[in-house]
């Protein structure tokens, strides 16, 4: 099977553990087991049998996930090995060779590669910056629909912009999907990582063939659990289960149990509160940093997610900018070109504040050395 190079993930796999400052992570600083769990929960894990367990996900875990999506039950949930597997199974369940997919970009860029590898034709509809927010042109989405369109996919909250669809944009997408009998997929991995205000409204049940993917990696700061999920109708979940039999068979029993603990309302509230405090401190640092360097950088501050998408005005490609920054200052940032957005950088803002401050100082040193400006 021919498949596009996944530039973001391949670059992270090669370099993220070799640098002093990894700003490519879009999630929050990870919790340790001791920080997350009480002694009784840790003791319970010691006695957990490390067998296959429930390959579709522990019943109690599926119920806990379903509780986050009004109208969903445990039968609407499949637990996966990370949200990447969830996305993959969703695409495999919804697209065949010759089908067409509309994908709202920029996004994680996994979906376009998978869809094309399955023989589907991909139409990318870009978000466009208008004033102080990234906007979706629903008329452009409508024009991209053909008789062969089987899927509309969106990442909300968005990676890499940190933007959130408006109520009108969400309802507009749902209406288009419903009117044309198209599946509506929403990657909601950043839901719960809002910097302020209420949690982003889910698109589950917004359209008859709605498919939501999510997981513990980003908003819950538990990437190492490798736990994701699909929430959808029972028939789509059944198709995804059949395809999971060919991929991982099921996710790990230890990760499932820890995820169950983490999703309990009191513990999840504590996770969200800690993450918001961390994001607020780092966003404040970055806001002041960008303000002083407004001749070089411009941005729209994120609404959700531990990332900031900066546009820069320098005579260098984003790929070269990030390579030279990594080689000279041991700071690893995400090139906008990896999202099809040249002239931009994505910086992770979910790390420890002192570490993030030091990384920004390294970027200043790079700007001075390379461009005689900072």
From TrEMBL:
Its EC number is 2.6.1.-. Keywords: Aminotransferase, Transferase. It comes from the Bacteria. It is an enzyme of class 2 (transferase). GO terms for molecular function: pyridoxal phosphate binding; transaminase activity. Its cofactor is pyridoxal 5'-phosphate. InterPro entries: Aminotransferase_I/II_large, NHTrfase_class1_PyrdxlP-BS, PyrdxlP-dep_Trfase, PyrdxlP-dep_Trfase_major, PyrdxlP-dep_Trfase_small. Residues 51-363 form the Aminotransferase class I/classII large domain. Belongs to the class-I pyridoxal-phosphate-dependent aminotransferase family. This is Aminotransferase. It comes from Mesorhizobium hungaricum.
């Amino acid at each position: 099977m021919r498949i596009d190079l996944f530039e973001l993930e391949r670059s992270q796999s090669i370099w993220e553990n070799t640098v002093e400052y990894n700003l490519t992570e879009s999630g929050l600083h990870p919790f340790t087991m001791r920080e997350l769990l009480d002694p009784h929960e840790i003791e319970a894990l010691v006695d957990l049998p490390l067998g296959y367990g429930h390959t579709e996900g522990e019943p109690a875990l599926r119920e806990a996930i379903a509780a986050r999506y009004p109208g969903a039950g445990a039968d609407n949930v499949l637990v996966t090995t990370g949200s990447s597997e969830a996305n993959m199974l969703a695409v495999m369940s919804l697209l065949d060779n010759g089908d067409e997919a509309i994908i709202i970009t920029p996004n994680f860029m996994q979906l376009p590669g998978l869809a094309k590898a399955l023989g589907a034709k991909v139409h990318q509809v870009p978000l466009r910056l208008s004033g102080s927010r990234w906007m979706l042109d629903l008329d452009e989405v409508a024009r991209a629909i053909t008789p062969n369109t089987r899927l509309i996919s969106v990442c909300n909250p968005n990676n890499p912009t940190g933007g959130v669809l408006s109520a009108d944009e969400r309802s507009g997408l749902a209406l288009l999907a419903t009117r044309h009998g198209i599946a509506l997929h929403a990657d909601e991995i950043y839901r719960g990582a809002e910097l302020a205000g209420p949690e982003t409204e889910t698109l589950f049940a917004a359209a008859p063939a709605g498919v939501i993917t999510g997981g513990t990696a980003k908003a819950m700061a538990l990437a190492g659990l490798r736990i994701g999920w699909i929430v959808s109708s029972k028939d789509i979940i059944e198709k995804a289960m059949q395809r999971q039999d060919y991929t991982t068979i099921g996710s790990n029993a230890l990760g499932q149990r820890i995820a169950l603990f983490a999703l309990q309302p009191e513990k999840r509230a504590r996770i969200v509160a800690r993450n918001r405090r961390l994001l607020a401190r780092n966003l404040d640092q970055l806001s002041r940093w960008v303000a002083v360097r407004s001749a070089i950088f411009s941005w729209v501050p994120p609404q959700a997610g531990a990332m900031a998408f900066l546009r820069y005005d320098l005579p260098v490609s984003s790929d070269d900018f990030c390579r030279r920054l990594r080689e000279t200052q041991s700071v690893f940032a995400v090139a906008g070109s990896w999202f099809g957005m040249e002239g931009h950088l994505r910086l992770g803002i979910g790390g420890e504040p002192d570490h993030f401050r030091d990384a920004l100082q390294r970027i200043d040193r790079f700007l001075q050395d390379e461009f005689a400006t900072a």
